[in-house]
Every structure is written in C-alpha cells, then in structure tokens.
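**User:**
If convenient, please work through this fold.
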Amino acid sequence: MEDILAYCPDCWEMVTRDGRNILHLSVEFKKQEAFKFIMKKSWVGNLINQKDAEGNAPLHVYAATPNFHGYDLENHPQAEKNAMSKKNMTPLDVIMCSDVYSARQDALIEELKAKGAICQNSLQLQKKVDLENEVVPIDIRKVADTHMIVASLITTVAFAAGFTIPGGHGGNDGPKEGLAVLSRKAALEHSL
C-alpha cells in the first residue's frame, strides 16, 4: 500500500462501483493490517464517514462484520456514531438487528452507547419483522392450496388420458356402437 500511494498519492479517494472506499473494504474483507495502516494516515478523516451506495459509513460495515477488531474506528473522534444509512439505521441498529452473535458485538454496543450512539429504529424493525412473520404463513398456505388443486387436475387429466382411445368412440348405432373410430388402423389393431 505504501508503494501504491507513493506512485499515486490520490488513489485513496477511489471507490468501487458500490461507492465503497478502502476503509469500507478493509473492514468488509477483515484485512486487519490494511485497516491499521489506513487508520494511521492523516487522510483517514476523509474516509471515515464517507457513505457507500446504500448509505453505509465504514462504521456500519464494521458493526455488521463479526469478529473483526477495528477498535480505532468507533473511537475515532471524527466517526459519526449516529450516521444514518438509506435504511434509516445507525451502526447500533445494525448490530442490534444482526442474527450473528459475538462477544465483540457486545463490547461494541457498550462502547457505542458510551459515546452517545442511539438505537434509532430497533423497535420499528422488530414490529416489521413481527408483521412479516404473521403474513408469510398465510401466503404459504395459499400457495400450498393452489399447488394441491393443480396437482389434482394434472392427476385427473393423466388418468383420463390413459383410458382414452385415440380418435375417440364412434357415436353410431348398430354393430359398431362403442368401437374406436380408428379401430381399423393397423397400429391400433395391434395395441388392442
């Protein structure tokens, strides 16, 4: 990284097509040495609150990345502890809504709260999750009923097709009553 910055000093400003900078990426991919290197640079203040396409600052990514220790990030004086993503979530919301548990997350929750971070939407998110859990089983039952009806229809059609003689039955009276229309064809005579 030192060599790259020596040849292209402004490359730290580059972002991915998702708007993530090198600080986002070092956290996301758990590159501890790169993270430490970046945090020691004077220009880190320009990166620390830069948001990606989803509105996530590096602290949001850090909150969502279990087992990555970047203690300097939440302690950095310029890091906005209550930055909002496009989903209206603070870094603390990200941790609280995560289904992955780690001791690091417990420590991060305490550190963020001590630094004035708030949990903006946890109650609203919990209500949304509860509502989704109520709606999903009803939809699944409707889909299951539809599949049962379709399966019954397919079985009925397949069963009827097994007993239907090609060409159908003649509707004439007399000695040929009820005989297959194509019964005089060679292929049908051998199959009967």
Remarks:
- The chain is about 55% helix and 0% strand.
- The radius of gyration is 33 Å.
- The first helix runs from residue 2 to 7.
- The chain has two domains: 2-120, 125-191.
